[in-house]
Amino acid sequence: MLTSPRPGNSRVFFFNLKRITSELKRGSHFSHNPVTAVMPLRLRIFSLNCWGIRYLSKHRAERYVMIGDLLSKEQYDVALLQEVWSEKDFYFLKTKLSSTLPYSHYFKSGFFGSGLAVFSRHRIHDVFLYKYSLNGYPYMAHHGDWFGGKAVGKLLLNISGLMVHVYVTHLHAEYSREQDSYLSHRVVQAWELQNFIRHTCAGADVVILGGDLNMHPEDLGVKLLRSYAGLRDCFIETASFEGCEHGFTHITDNPFTNTHELSPFGGGIRIDYILFKGSGRVEVSCNSMSTTKGFVPGYDFPYSDHEALSTELLLCPLKYEKGETDCNAASLSELINIVTEARTEVKVGLHCAERMRHTAARTGFMGLALLLLEMAIAAVPVFSLGAEKPFPKASFYLLGALCFAILLSALFLYIFYSMEVKSLEGTEDQMRLAVGSLQEQLKELPKVIDEDDSQREPDAVEPED
Q: Which DSSP symbol is given to 264?
């Protein structure tokens, strides 16, 4: 029975009522209350690696016009773009999509930028960027990943009272399947990505990850995201699919791709993903998914060297909040094996980095010795008592400059490899602790099952007549 507030407390009463009303409008959830929205919601997500390198990517300006037209026509809720390397291209899309996707953000990182851009039909309430600790090598300038500052961007959306956490990322490219010198870096990036998602999605009703992961579905990084972070793959979960065979997003029919690199994989690979998971308050399912198929009708080229992904997620708020499901022994064992395998790859990368650091140190000592020898040779005419002899200054200066360059380059590489060693060691330590914690959970699991069975046994005994 409700009673009217006392005259002296009326101001406090109405203040608290106003505060609670504003919290509900913002979509705040209370742990023991049911979710207010019960009608299913449809959320359309778009993801594309735009391949937007200024002066290098073919038909870049025309393709951005095509991408803008596509996003304007299809009425997506969220568009996750990668390799938007120029802010001018981002502002072009922002102007073009001002009416259909009015909210946007460009994540800045590295020398060229992260290349990550987000457009949303719903207001963006918060953003955050996490830059990966490892991202290739600066001397591999023709690959360019190190200069890009690869990272994961997060944005917070409030959609009809539901807190939706959206992540967009782009991992290091795989330039050779057989001799992948970046495998350890990509495993570290996948580990940091799943850690970042797990530790920042508290309170989320829905979690969505989209982007170019540069990993095949059976690779370690994807397994980590699916098993440890609990994300589900739209391509696997979808009720309806339309697009390239096997969900390929890098196909030989695309004129911008190197068909020689893709031919061993049967005409294409799947390296772009949209992953999702729900919560105890919202059940999420993938209603449909599609990819583009190379050439765009009416044009002589496609949107990008990657195929675009689009999916429709069905968000079903639950009337009452459900608890988290406990992991069983099989899933825990599989997760332990995956983390152990990832730890092994990190150890391999750690040994390579230590070897390269030692090589850089030896090269630096050699450069220093040559430089000291040069200085000693230059001092000989000063202390000589005989007649002055001509000294080859040009050759001396050239050789001295070469020794100094060797010394400086070796010092730079030693510092870089020392940082790589520290990052790999840190990740390996995290994985070791994670494996130990998971093993403890696996040991405790039979005890929990036995205790539950022992508690149920008395209830199962029928009373005697």
A: G
Read off the amino acid at residue 299. Y
* Complete DSSP assignment for 6-42: PGGGHHHHHHHHHHHHHHHHTT---TTSPPS--S-EE
- DSSP-based helix, strand, coil % in the chain, nearest 5: 45, 20, 35
- Cβ neighbours of residue 319 closer than 8 Å, sequence gap 6 or more: 34, 35, 38
Tokens of 137: 């090598």
Q: How far apart are CA 329 and CA 333, in angstroms?
A: 6
Active-site positions read: 306
Residue with tokens 């390579």: 352
Taking the mean position of all CA atoms in its chain, how far away is CA 246? Answer: 22
Q: Residue 183: helix, strand or coil by DSSP?
A: helix
Q: What is the DSSP string of 350-378?
A: HHHHHHHHHHHHHHHHHHHHHHHHHHHHH
Q: Where are the alpha helices (DSSP H) in 201-325?
A: 220-227, 234-237, 259-262
How sure is the predictor about 375, in pLDDT bands with cuts at 50, 70 and 90? confident
CB 45 within 8 A of CB 76: yes
DSSP state of 100: T
Q: Which helix (H) or strand (E) holds 96?
A: helix 87-96
Amino acid at 225: L
SS (H, E, C) 277-294: ECCCCEEEEEEEEEECCC
User: Which residue type occupies 62?
Assistant: E
Lookup: tokens for 385: 């008592």
Say how far apart CA 72 and CA 70 lie, in whole Å. 5
Neighbours of 374 (CB within 10 A): 18
Q: Using DSSP bridges, classify how beta strands 41-52 and 309-317 pair: parallel, antiparallel or unpaired.
A: antiparallel
Span 57-75, pLDDT tens digits: 999 999 999 999 999 999 8
**Per-residue pLDDT, 41:** 94
**Dihedral class, residue 123 (left if φ above 0, else alpha if ψ from -120 to 50, else beta):** beta
CA distance 19 to 203: 20
